[in-house]
Design goal:
The protein is of the alpha+beta class and 202 residues long. Helices cover 13% and strands 32% of the residues. The protein has 2 helices and 12 strands; from the N terminus they run βαβββαββββββββ. The chain has a 6-stranded antiparallel beta sheet, with helices on one face. A hairpin with a 2-residue loop joins strand 3 and strand 4. The longest helix is centred in the first third of the chain and has 17 residues. The protein is globular, with a radius of gyration of 16 Å.
């Protein structure tokens, strides 16, 4: 962990654990199909597709960023977070309460994620735990202002990243996907799993 509270656990999931998590995520995607989110106000489609599991799911559309308990297309409640994903939170978060939202981002080879802060939650004391599956990405992280200097690092399949402490509200994003760097996903691309606590306990 660096002084900001950023922790990177390279190779946190071995190949067998990656395959087990992928199988659980495929089940989630069958129950809660991946969809194309839209940017607030403009309604412009994002290049990343997504779905969620857990009591709450993060969504974005013309009405803004928010958490809600149901899939925006099907209207169904999100499926529960699989045990294999919860186990990662329990090991990595160092936080006593369970996550309430598990956002699953699906990146094709040309998908990107612009610099942003994870600040739609009430409880910033809880970290954000992120797990990477599939092709390596070039991840960028900066400070609390969009204009702060940034640094880049590669996140490979099986890597875990934790944003806690000062890094909890750091601007971050994905500049690009590196095709052919993993054989985990037959279709290529990358799946990112992001676990968050949304509400404050007590």
């Amino acid at each position: 962990m660096d002084a900001s509270g950023l922790r990177i656990c390279a190779g946190y999931l071995d190949r067998a654990a990656q395959e087990a998590m992928l199988a659980a995520l495929r089940d989630i995607m069958r129950a809660a199909p991946i969809y194309t989110p839209r940017m607030p106000k403009s309604g412009k489609p994002m290049s990343v597709r997504m779905t969620n599991c857990g009591p709450l799911g993060w969504v974005t559309d013309e009405h803004g960023y928010r958490y809600q308990p149901r899939h925006p297309d099907t209207g169904d409640a999100w499926p529960p977070i699989p045990d294999v994903v919860l186990a990662a939170w329990q090991t990595l978060a160092r936080y006593p309460h369970p996550p309430e939202a598990c956002l699953i981002n699906v990146y094709s080879a040309d998908a990107r994620m612009g610099l942003h802060q994870d600040r739609d939650e009430v409880d910033f004391a809880a970290p954000v735990v992120s797990l990477s599956l599939g092709d390596t990405c070039l991840f960028r992280i900066g400070g609390h202002k969009r204009s702060d200097p940034t640094r880049s690092l590669k996140l490979a399949s099986g890597d875990a990243l934790v944003l806690g402490g000062e890094a909890r509200l750091a601007f971050h994003g994905v500049d690009r996907i590196m095709p052919g760097t993993s054989t985990l996903l037959p279709e290529g691309g990358r799946i990112n799993v992001t676990l968050r606590r949304v509400t404050r306990v007590g």
